[in-house]
# Entry
Amino acid sequence: MFSDISHERQQSLLRQRNLFALTSACLGFALVVAGSLAATRDREVVLVPTIPKQLMVSSAGVEADYLELVTRDAALVLLNRSPEGLDYWMNEILKLADPASFGQLKAELVRIVEEQRGSDVTQAFVIRSMTVDPKGLTSDVTGTLKTFVGAQVIASDERRFRFSWTYRGLRLALAGFAQLPPQDKSKEAQ
# Structure
């Protein structure tokens, strides 16, 4: 009798062990399939078709070429403005904003919009040079800032601006911008 109970108990444990092994094998196989699908899945990133070469965005960091192109577009949007398009101008810049810097950027832009609304002052910026630092996520843009009242140029000055960026996930976002003091020409010659 004890041998029958012992045999029955051993058979029950054997069935449990076999069921556990089968379940583990199935889960392991499912994990391998899911891992291979994730690794070989095509990843599509659509970039602007006007760029001269193919760029790739990865979680490893920002390429210098990509940072330069984004800075160029941001600088042209940010530094070219007229009273007729101020709302569009502000909304487009805020689309680039980092969520952590959104409030501060919006406050700066609202101040600019309130100053310029109803005036005839238009601003145009022509980029002369740009330096980017993909590690520090900053870019400096130098160029000529022209100010117009109506059709007449009232100022044309050499200006430098620094753009600060954040990179989270695969999104490069504007954290801030500032005008820098002009570079000393004697330092540039060295």
In short: The domain at 64-185 is CATH 3.10.450.230 (Nuclear Transport Factor 2; Chain: A,). The mean pLDDT is 87. The chain has five helices and four strands.
